[in-house]
Amino acid sequence: MVEVLRVAGATDVVVGRGLLSASLVVEERPGRRRAAFFCQPGEPARLSRRLARELQAAGMASAVRVLPDGEAAKTIEVAAAAYAWLAGLGLTREDTVVGVGGGALTDVAGFVAATFLRGVEAILVPTTLLGAVDAAIGGKTALNLGAKNLVGAFHHPSRVIVDADLLDGLPLDLRREGWAEALKAGLVGDPGLVAMFERDGTHTDLAEVVRRAVAVKAAIVGRDPRDHGERAHLNYGHTIGHAVEVAGGLSHGAAVAVGMVAAGRAGAELAGFAEEARQREVIASLGLPVAAPGLDGAEARRLIGQDKKRSGAGLRMVVLEVIGRPRLEMAPTATVSSALAAVGIS
Ligand SMILES: NC(=O)c1ccc[n+]([C@@H]2O[C@H](COP(=O)([O-])OP(=O)(O)OC[C@H]3O[C@@H](n4cnc5c(N)ncnc54)[C@H](O)[C@@H]3O)[C@@H](O)[C@H]2O)c1
Question: Where are the alpha helices (DSSP H) in the chain?
Answer without folding.
Answer: 22-25, 43-57, 76-89, 103-115, 129-130, 164-168, 172-189, 191-200, 206-223, 238-248, 252-271, 276-285, 297-306, 333-342
